[in-house]
Structures are given as C-alpha cells and as structure tokens.
Structure to design on (686 residues):
C-alpha cells in the first residue's frame, strides 16, 4: 500500500499538470517566495509578504486617522472571534519593544459573555470562560470579563447624552500636543523601563460585579425569548453589548474603544443597516470612528482587512481565538436580515471578487454631515437606544415617517382589557405579563423598559410615555414593528439564483433592489430616485460629492414593506 | 517501477490518507470535532476536492448540509486551505489530493 502511494505521488506531476497552476507562480511582492494566499484576484502573496502587508494595513489605519493619542487608555472589545482576536494580537505586537513604530497607547481588553442571550447552559459558558481566561493571560493586558446580564445593573446615566462633541477642529494640534507631553513623560519614566500597561496589572480579570445571578440570567433569556425575530434579537444584542462596553470604558477611564469589525463585516452591516432603516446613521455605524457617545469614541482599525485575510493571518501566525456560538449559529440563510445579507454579499463576492470592497468603499465615502441649517445649533434629541440623532423628530415630521410612526402608535391603541395586559411587543421582555411584573420592574434601569414601546395603557396615562416613543429612532422602531418571520420569508429565492423571480412578483422586489444597488453609484442614484424623491426626510446622509443622499430609511422601509408582503405591519400601511 | 506506476494509475487510485480539519465554527456541523484523520478508499478516478466534498457530505457531515455545501462547492464564506495554502492557487475544486495532504475548512460566516 505504501508503495502504491509512492508510485501515485511520483506519477502525479507528470500526469495532470493543469491541477497545480499556482505552484509555479511567485509572490507578487518579492517575486521569490511560494505564494500562500490570494488577496485580490491574481495577487498572490507569500507568507512573509502577507504578514508585512497585513501589519502595515493595521498601522496605516491607525496612523492616518491620528485619533488615538499616545498614552491614551484604549479598550479593546474582544469577542473571541477571528477579527477581534487578530486586532488584539496586532496591538500586542505593536506595543512590544522590538516593533518598528511602536504603538504608544495603554490597552485593556473587554470580553462580554453573551451566553444567556444565546441560551447556552452554565457549563458551556464556564468552559468558554476558561478558554477566554487562557487567551487573556497570554495577552497580559488588563482585562474585564463581563456577563451580558450586567446590563441590568447599569445606571440610567448610560442613556444620557454626553453632549460634548469631540472637537473636530484642531485635532491635528491636539494630537501634536499629546505626542509632546507623552514624550516628556517618557523621559521622566524612561529609567523605570516598565511597560506602561504592565504596572497596574490586576490579579485576574476585573468585573463589575460577581458572576451573574440566576435571576438575572433568567431575566435576560426571557428578554431574548420574547424577541420574536432573529433580526431584532441581533440588533438588541448589539445595542446592549455596546452600552455595556461603553459603561466599562467610562468607569475605568478608557477614552477609546477599539472594535474589530472587518471589511467584510462592515459591508454586510452597511447593507443590513439600509434594509433596517438605519440609512441615516450609516456613517456612524460603519465609519472608522464613531463619536456619537461623546466622551468615548469607538474606532474600527480592522476595517480594511477582509475576513479572508484575517482567517489566513490567524491560521498562518497562530493567533489564538475562542469560538463561541452566537445567536445565529446554525440558523438557515434566511433566518434574519443579517444572515440573508451576508449570504447575498458573499455569494456575489464569489462571482465578482470586488463586491465586498465596492460596498465597503461606499461606506467610506459617507460623511457625517449635519442637517441642513442645523450645523450651528445644538445637537438635537437622540435616540434612547442607539444614541443617534433622532430622525423621527416632531419639527418637520409632517412629511416624514416620524409623524407616521408616532401617529401610527396612537392608531394602534386599542383600548380594552387586552391593551391593559400589554400588547405583545417584539422587544418587550414580558409579553403577556402585566406591565408591573417580570423584569420590567427590576430597578434601576432595565433595557426592556426602554425597548418596549409605550403601551396603549401607559400612553393614555400621560405625556411621558409618548415623549419616550418619540425618542426612539426610526430603525429601532422598525425593529419593533417587524412581524414574526415576515421580514425574510417573503423575500423569496435568492436573486442570483433565480433570475426569473426577479421580475414581477412583489415579494422579490427587495432582492431586486439590493442586487441593482451593489454598484456604489447605482446605490446612491437608485436609492434617491426610487425611494427618496418627493419624500424629503428630515435627516440625510451626504455622499462624497454634491449629491444629496439616499433616504436610507425610506429605502429600508420599502425593502421591508415589499419583503414582508405584510404592509399592515408598517407604519405607512394605514 | 515505471510499469507499476502506470498500472497503479490506470487501474485504481490508491486509498489516500488525508487530514480534514474544520474551523471557525464549521466544526459544529461535524459534532464539534475539528480534526478528522480519514482514509479515502481507492476509486477509479483520482480524488479531487470535488469528490472529497461529496465524500464529506456522505460520511462526516452530521447535520444541515446546506450550511456547508452549496451546489458542488463549499458555501460562499467558507475558506479552503490545502496544506496551509489558499485553494485558489491550486485549482480549487480540481486540485488532486495527494497522500497525507491536510485540507482545512474555515468558516468566516457570522456565528460559524
């Protein structure tokens, strides 16, 4: 058997020469090494050149934006997944003494245990936490391991708008000043020779409190169980996670949070956000820096790396990561808008290798333009949950969805015993329960109290509730309105698979719209002409040029409306 | 030597021993087992990745084949590495397996 195997191997090179076209190829950079990874079509890199390319991209992203000052405390949001693991590793290598241009900020790592949201058993979670601990020990940064349950313990202040905007003017000067003062400090401390972050290394990871209690776990899983659609679940999870991370950052004095979103993930997020009616906030949701929280800025240094590069890097250079099942693990392709969009983009990417980068470049061109005429005035009200400038305000909502959304609420109010018991809402933690029971009553702040819309009964009680209803952005409101499963089910067959289905039937219109929007120019034009024209919304995202921007949320509404085929669920239906 | 080589090639490809590995969450579809040392039986046509996928679907895959295989290839978003090199360099589905090759499938999809 052994001989036969050897014979076969000898015969292979002579036999089918066509099977190994890449072996003769050389690395496009050094022209010497054997290539191991194809980054763009035809660009094959060898191992060493790939590493240089990868590291350079990370450094360049931080370098050109100049947002992270030397000596600043930066919290790395680590989920255990490939991108964020790679990011932590890049920072670790960048801070080491022998790296060429040493990074000079002070890092910390946060890991959020989301097991309860995904319905994992305590044993499973404990096992994951052991793995997490091992990786964190190897990394050696100060670490914070937090359970998602602790959102119940967050103070109400996390929802307060931190009004001060980071000064965009004079950033350059501020950066230089920070560098100077850092260098001076270094001179003083120079003799100590200690890593700045190794000094306050605590024993073990820090946590806001002890391990989550069973009551909290139950409350959280009940909250997530009550969310009917996977799309809404993912959005809710993301919102809660962000609040928790920001809170930890604030309490421990971190002024920046690094998130590990890769280019592929951001492209998916961009398309998803559009479909979810968050088009107005694309620049915040997908840009390099996200200043909406005021005192803590979220940055995304991995946004130039595709997931393929990340996966190869992690494999080739043994970057440790911890796989944890997410809410959508093993879910079918059409289970949520997020999944559908991911499958859609990746399938297109398989046929047209520049799809992801094209979509991603679109996100790069979006600017955070203030609303017309509002540039000088103080920032308007923000959404309670996502903290974006509210796009359903009362000022000019006569023409906008804002009015429709809020008036729709009133129309929804069907007085009676059913209303008293609370309408089953997608985001409320206690459907079918009386308003005073369940986790809604747990002090001092519970996310569900905010994620639930004012009930008919509470709206009738006073103006406070309706004021709250007006403090949720359109996208978040959309989440609540999604009927069970309707969002994706009616989208029908995938457009790239079934050309026939593209035409005619209303159910496919969403996909048709998406497939025609892939080209970024078309994206802007199409959105505007199809969905934006004649419906001037209060807030617009501006494209790179003069072009007035897409009414993302309008387009998103159209997608959902067509997708659901259930127009009754949408505010405009009545 | 030459004769035996030709005969071996013409009659039947020998059984191959290869290592199949799953990562990035793809292992969940295989009972959570990451590394599989498998022996592919001898067959008339040489083993390539296309055949291997069919074999994997039949013998290793435990659930939801559509999350791993679509058409005759892997689902978009799952990377294939042959001996730690990109399969795009090696002819993708047409790469002919050699004895002791290691084939790695990494899922880059959200949630594995």
């Amino acid at each position: 058997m052994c001989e036969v195997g050897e014979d076969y191997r000898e015969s292979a090179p002579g036999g089918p020469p066509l099977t190994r076209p890449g072996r003769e190829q050389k690395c496009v950079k050094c022209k010497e090494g054997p290539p191991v990874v194809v980054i763009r079509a035809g660009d094959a890199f060898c191992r060493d050149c790939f590493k240089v390319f990868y590291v350079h991209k990370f450094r360049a992203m931080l370098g050109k934006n100049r947002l992270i000052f030397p000596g600043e405390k930066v919290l790395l949001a680590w989920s255990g997944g490939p991108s964020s693991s790679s990011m932590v590793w890049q920072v670790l290598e960048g801070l080491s003494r022998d790296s060429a241009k040493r990074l000079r900020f002070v890092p910390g790592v946060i890991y959020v245990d989301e097991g309860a949201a995904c319905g994992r058993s305590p044993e499973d979670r404990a096992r994951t936490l052991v793995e997490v601990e091992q990786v964190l020990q190897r990394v050696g940064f100060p670490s914070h391991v937090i359970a998602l349950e602790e959102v119940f313990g967050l103070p109400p202040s996390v929802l307060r708008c931190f009004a001060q905007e980071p000064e965009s003017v004079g950033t350059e000067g501020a950066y230089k000043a920070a560098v100077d003062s850092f260098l001076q400090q270094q001179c003083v401390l120079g003799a100590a020779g200690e890593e700045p972050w190794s000094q306050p290394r605590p024993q073990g990871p820090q946590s806001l409190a002890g391990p989550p209690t069973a009551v909290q776990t139950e409350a959280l899983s009940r909250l997530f169980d009550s969310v009917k659609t996977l799309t809404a679940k993912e959005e809710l999870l993301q919102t809660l996670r962000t609040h928790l991370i920001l809170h930890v950052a604030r309490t421990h004095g971190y002024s920046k949070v690094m998130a590990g979103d890769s280019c592929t993930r951001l492209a998916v997020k961009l398309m998803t956000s559009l479909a979810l009616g968050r088009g107005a906030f694309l620049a915040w949701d997908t840009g390099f820096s996200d200043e909406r929280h005021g005192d803590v800025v979220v940055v995304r240094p991995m946004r130039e790396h595709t997931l393929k590069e990340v996966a190869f890097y992690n494999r080739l250079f043994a970057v440790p990561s911890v796989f944890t099942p997410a809410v959508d693990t093993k879910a079918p392709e059409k289970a949520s808008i997020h999944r559908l969009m991911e499958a859609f983009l990746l399938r297109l990417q398989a046929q047209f290798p520049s799809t992801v980068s094209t979509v991603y470049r679109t996100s790069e061109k979006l600017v955070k333009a203030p609303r017309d005429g509002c540039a000088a005035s103080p920032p308007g009200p923000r959404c309670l949950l996502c903290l974006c400038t509210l796009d359903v305000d009362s000022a000019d909502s006569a023409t906008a969805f804002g009015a429709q959304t809020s008036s729709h609420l009133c129309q929804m109010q069907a007085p009676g015993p059913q209303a008293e018991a609370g309408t089953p809402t997608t985001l409320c933690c206690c459907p079918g329960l009386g308003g005073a029971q369940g986790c809604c009553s747990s002090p001092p702040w519970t996310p569900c109290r905010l994620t639930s819309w004012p009930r008919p009964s509470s709206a009738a009680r006073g103006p406070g509730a309706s004021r709250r209803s007006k403090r949720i952005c359109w996208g978040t409101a959309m989440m609540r309105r999604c009927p069970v499963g309707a969002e994706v089910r009616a989208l029908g067959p995938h457009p790239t698979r079934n050309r026939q289905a593209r035409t005619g039937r209303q159910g496919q219109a969403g996909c048709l719209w998406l497939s025609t929007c892939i080209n970024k120019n078309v994206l802007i034009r199409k959105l505007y002409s199809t969905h934006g024209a004649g419906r001037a919304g209060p807030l617009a995202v501006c494209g790179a040029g003069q072009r007035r921007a897409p009414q993302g949320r309008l387009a998103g509404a159209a997608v959902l409306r067509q997708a659901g085929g259930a127009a009754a669920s949408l505010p405009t239906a009545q | 030597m030459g004769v035996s080589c030709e005969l071996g090639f013409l009659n039947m490809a020998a059984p191959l021993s290869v290592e199949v590995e799953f990562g990035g969450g793809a292992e969940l579809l295989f009972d959570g087992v990451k590394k599989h040392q498998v022996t592919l039986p001898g067959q008339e046509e040489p083993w390539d990745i296309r055949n291997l996928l069919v074999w994997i679907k039949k013998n290793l895959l435990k659930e939801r084949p559509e999350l791993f295989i679509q058409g005759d290839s892997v689902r978009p978003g799952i990377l294939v590495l042959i001996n730690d090199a990109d399969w795009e360099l090696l002819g993708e589905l047409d790469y002919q397996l050699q004895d002791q090759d290691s084939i790695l499938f990494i899922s880059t999809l959200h949630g594995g």
Q: What stands out?
A: Residues 16-107 of chain B form a domain with the Ubiquitin-like (UB roll) fold (CATH 3.10.20.30). Chain B touches chain A through 44 residues (CB under 8 Å).
